[in-house]
Write a structure and sequence with these properties.
- The protein is of the alpha/beta class.
- It has one domain: Spore Coat Polysaccharide Biosynthesis Protein SpsA, Chain A (Alpha-Beta Complex).
- The protein contains ten helices and ten strands.
- The two termini are 18 Å apart.
């Protein structure tokens, strides 16, 4: 099956960013802040090929680790990094200011509106959607842009892992992620739209504007909606491999409680929809107008 990525159990590159992950920004060491500022100054381009847009709503405790990881991106392409503060009521805006990252305040609530603001402000030909509770490997930006530069590709999504915690231990998460990766691998052939997750998603800016932008009325699923709307214009690619594998917090799993409960719930949903491995479904089941749990 090609390069099905190695699970969290052997991934360790993100550990240094845990120094500021899920911690008050006021506790961040000054040397880390200065390092991020220096990194950002070097990476920002006035004529970017791609825009990296970080959306954030009340993410003061995770945003700094996200920005830090992106500031250390190793890329051959000119990029800009911008922030979107989705009308947060915590210190999210202060974190952007702390590291000198240009950001915009979007008063209309919801991830669709936040991503749309990023699209509106983007100067690049491509946009990489970034969730502020996620940490990215330094190869992520380069690999995603490289895929978008291929003929006929209009969007690309990638796989991801979780930062283990006491409720979601590393061993069980590695098993969970391995099975989830296999699930996404098979989905990617007939239904790549169903593989799309907003935190690890990039696409063409001109085409996204041409199709009318994000479906801002959706509570969730605006990412899949964009992918679906772009499909008539080209290929939606799904990237596997640790070079594009981000790590995120477990809050999306938290609603289901224990890891086993979350796992079996998602397995059941995947079994019910197993025919998606073999037939293109598109929006026929409401994707992305209905919320979908990832395996």
């Amino acid at each position: 099956m090609g390069d099905i990525s190695l699970p969290t159990i052997i991934m360790c590159w993100y550990r240094k960013y845990l120094q500021v992950f899920e911690k008050p920004p006021c506790e961040a060491p000054i040397e880390i802040i200065e390092k991020i500022k220096s990194n950002l100054a070097k990476i920002q381009s006035s004529q970017p090929l791609a825009t990296i847009a970080i959306i954030a709503y009340n993410e003061e405790s995770r945003l700094l680790s996200c920005i830090w990881s992106l500031s250390e991106s190793l890329t051959n392409y000119p990029v800009e990094i911008i922030g979107i503060d989705n009308n947060s009521c915590d210190s999210t805006a202060a974190v952007y200011e702390m590291v000198g990252l240009p950001f915009f305040k979007e008063l209309k609530m919801g991830p669709g509106n936040a991503r749309q603001r990023g699209l509106d402000e983007a100067k690049g030909r491509y946009i990489l959607c970034i969730d502020s509770d996620t940490i990215y490997p330094n190869t992520y930006v380069n690999e995603m842009i490289k895929e978008l530069e291929k003929p006929g590709v209009v969007a690309v999504s990638a796989s991801y892992s979780y930062v283990p915690d006491k409720n979601y231990p590393r061993f069980w998460m590695s098993i969970y992620e391995r099975l989830r990766d296999v699930h996404l691998f098979f989905l990617s052939f007939k239904n790549p739209v169903w593989c799309v997750r907003g935190a690890v998603f990039g696409h063409s800016v001109p085409l996204a504007r041409e199709v009318g932008g994000y479906r801002v009325h959706l509570t969730r699923g605006e990412d899949g909606g964009m992918a679906y709307d772009l499909m008539p214009h080209g290929k939606i690619k799904f990237k596997r491999g640790n070079r594009t594998r981000a790590v995120t917090c477990t809050k999306s799993l938290g609603a289901d409680g224990h890891i086993l409960k979350a796992f079996f719930r998602r397995v059941l949903e995947s079994i019910i929809g197993v025919w998606r491995y073999f037939f293109f479904t598109g929006d026929s089941e409401g994707r992305p107008d209905k919320e979908q749990k990832e395996l």
